[in-house]
Every structure is written in structure tokens, then in C-alpha cells.
From TrEMBL:
This is SDR family NAD(P)-dependent oxidoreductase. InterPro entries: NAD(P)-bd_dom_sf, SDR_fam. Belongs to the short-chain dehydrogenases/reductases (SDR) family. Keywords: Oxidoreductase. It comes from Agromyces tropicus. Pfam families: adh_short. PANTHER family: NAD(P)-BINDING ROSSMANN-FOLD SUPERFAMILY PROTEIN, RETINOL DEHYDROGENASE. The keyword Oxidoreductase applies.
């Protein structure tokens, strides 16, 4: 599996969960982390597709430490069943919130819980997952959320997160990515505040958050520029040809996974950062600038409250120091 430009530091002993890991960026992130020695839990909504992804990894790395966990992020019951399973396992050192509907429906649909489907899948399921497992993350763990360049190309309707009044397929996608990024930075602020409160309570000067929440975007990463992996990535000739025409401004998903892997593994990473490809749409990982909206603390607090309401429970970040 020599698809990559840079080596990953040894990951033996680290526990990582990747959602939406049976395909695309999630698959290549999982494969790369497993190759570096991490124990990776590949999560997805379909057991057959998860089995195919694990088989593809094992074919190249028979001793890879990988297992699977079925979570459909669009369903709060499925997420909570997944949380119960995770709480019985070893604490996680990193969680990659990657699962997402990228090709969004032209008409508004609702999830089984009555939330707008793209928001439910890309944002609310991950919010509920984190609410359940945050206390079970190890000290220094990283929560890596998938943002997107699309955030720059859309406004944000924080007063209509469920797009009840103004749904269209593009807005649903872009808005879900803005909301996910806003929540990730809000989580970072709350983790820092919790660390400061815990430090003040014992008269200590320094306050390192117990967990780091940051955001990554993969530039523009497409299947037709991605190695063929049976059962995981099998674009037809037409897609390969069409995607080859975009070579100047697109990369494969194996390369798009690089900033995600960097966010999970590199020493120069901390909560509140935003990483992406150095040339915006492609290239090696580099620190990037997120949008003003996604960094706005007042907006973050409103999205947090709306997400709590949508998942039907409060999400407290307890005062704990690293
Ligand atoms: N590719 C890009 O250029 C790009 C750019 C910006 C951001 N991103 C973000 O990167 C992430 C991955 O994108 P990708 O390009 O790798 O997409 P992808 O190839 O379509 O893969 C998406 C993954 O999410 C899973 N998923 C979808 N709905 C799910 C659900 N309800 N429950 C659990 N898993 C679900 C899919 O599983 P199934 O196979 O079961 O559908 C698949 O494993 C997304 O969050 C996307 O917004 C991608």
C-alpha cells in the first residue's frame, strides 16, 4: 500500500474510531492508521460493506488490528446502540467524524427521528455519538470533524438549521458542513473552559483540555483519481475518464485522507485548529483558515443548543483537567 507521500508515526497501542469507514476518505484513513499499527474500529451503516472494507485491508495487511461497528448516523437509536458497545471497549484515543451524505437529495427528507436527513446524518448523529462517548475518551484524545470547502460557498441559516423553509440539495450539504465545523470549534471552547474551571478549582495555573477537538477538510477528493479497491472503490471507465479531466484541481481520496491522518497522528496538532491540503484542493496537510461564521462563538452556542434539542438531551462538558 505505497499510495502515500509521507510516513505516519508508529500508532501501536492507539484506539481509533472512524465513522463512514467502508468507503472513500474514511476507508483510506482507516487503512493508513491500521498500517501504522493503530487498532481501528471501522464504523458504517451496512455490515456487508464494512466486511468488504475489512477484507480489503486484510488482503494487504493480514495482521491489521481492525474491527467493525454498525452505526447509522442518521438514526439516534443506532447511534445510542453504538455508544453502548463503545463504552464496553477500551477508551478511544481518536474519533474521526467522517460519515456523510455527499450526494444530497433534491427534495427534503426526514430521518427516522424527524430531523432533516442531511443534518441528521452529517451532524446530529455525530453530536449524539460524542455526547455518549466523551467521558470514555482517553486523556489527550483527538476528535477530528470533517469540514469542507463548500462552507465558503454558502450562507448559514442558523435560525433554520432543519431547512424547513429553504431546502435545496446544495444548501443542505454546505449547511451541514458549517454546522459540523461550528460544533467542533464550540466543543473545543467548552473543553478549554472545562479545563480552566478544573484548574481554578485546585488553584493550578495551567489548564490543558482533556480532549482536543479540531476540523479537517480534504480539498477536492474524487473516486476516479483513487486507486481501485475491490468492494470499496470501483469507479467505471466513464467516471475514471471524467475525473481524469479534473486532475489539475482534484486528488484521489487516498490523498484526501492525508490531512485526516495528520490530524489524528501528528505532534503539531491541537484543538481548535483547521487543517487541509496545502494547495486548497489538493496536496500535503497544512494549517488552513476556517470561515468567520464557523469560528463565531455566539453562533456555535446557538448551534449547540439546537443540536441538543434535536437529539433530545443536554450535552454537558464536565470540568476535568488533563
Ligand atoms: N470528497 C471530498 O472532496 C470531500 C470534500 C469535503 C468534505 N468531504 C467530507 O468527507 C467525508 C467523506 O466523504 P467521501 O468523499 O469519502 O464520501 P463517500 O465516498 O461517499 O463516503 C461516505 C461515507 O459515509 C458513509 N455514510 C453515509 N451515510 C451514512 C449513514 N447514515 N450512517 C453511516 N455512514 C454513512 C458512507 O457509507 P455507505 O457506503 O453506506 O453510504 C461512506 O462510508 C464527508 O463527511 C464529506 O462531507 C469530502
Amino acid at each position: 500500500m505505497n499510495w502515500y507521500p509521507a510516513a505516519v508515526p508508529p500508532q501501536a497501542g492507539r484506539e481509533v474510531l472512524v465513522t463512514g469507514a467502508n468507503a472513500g476518505l474514511g476507508f483510506f484513513t482507516s487503512a493508513r492508521l491500521a498500517r501504522a499499527g493503530a487498532h481501528v474500529t471501522l464504523s458504517g451503516r451496512d455490515p456487508g460493506r464494512l466486511a468488504a472494507a475489512v477484507a480489503a485491508i486484510r488482503e494487504r495487511m493480514p495482521r491489521a488490528a481492525v474491527d467493525t461497528l454498525v452505526i447509522d448516523t442518521s438514526s439516534l437509536d443506532s447511534v445510542r446502540a453504538g455508544v453502548d458497545r463503545l463504552l464496553d471497549r477500551a477508551p478511544l484515543d481518536a474519533v474521526v467524524l467522517n460519515a456523510g451524505m455527499v450526494h444530497t437529495p433534491s427534495r427534503r427528507h426526514e430521518s427516522v427521528d424527524g430531523n432533516e436527513l442531511v443534518l441528521a446524518t452529517n451532524v446530529l448523529g455525530h453530536f449524539a455519538l460524542l455526547e455518549g462517548i466523551l467521558p470514555h475518551l482517553s486523556r489527550g484524545a483527538r476528535v477530528v470533524t470533517l469540514g469542507s470547502l463548500s462552507m465558503r460557498l454558502s450562507t448559514f441559516r442558523v435560525d433554520d438549521l432543519q431547512l424547513a423553509r429553504s431546502y435545496d440539495a446544495w444548501r443542505a450539504y454546505a449547511q451541514s458542513k458549517i454546522a459540523a465545523t461550528s460544533l467542533a470549534f464550540e466543543l473545543d471552547r467548552r473543553l478549554r473552559r472545562a479545563a480552566t474551571d478544573a484548574a481554578e478549582a485546585v488553584g493550578a495555573a495551567s489548564a490543558t483540555p482533556r480532549v482536543h477537538s479540531l476540523v479537517v477538510h480534504p480539498g477536492y477528493s474524487i473516486s476516479g483519481r483513487t486507486p481501485r479497491v475491490p468492494g470499496v472503490n470501483e469507479p467505471n471507465r466513464t467516471d475514471r475518464f471524467a475525473d481524469a479531466l479534473q486532475a489539475a484541481w482534484a486528488q484521489g481520496k487516498h490523498r484526501g485522507a492525508e490531512p485526516i491522518v495528520h490530524a489524528v497522528t501528528a505532534d503539531d496538532v491541537e484543538g481548535g485548529q483547521y487543517w487541509g491540503p496545502v494547495w486548497l484542493v489538493k496536496g500535503r496537510p497544512a494549517l488552513a483558515a476556517s470561515t468567520r461564521t464557523s469560528r463565531d462563538a455566539r453562533i456555535g452556542a446557538r448551534v449547540w443548543a439546537a443540536a441538543e434539542e434535536a437529539i433530545g438531551r443536554p450535552f454537558e462538558v464536565p470540568a476535568v483537567r488533563a
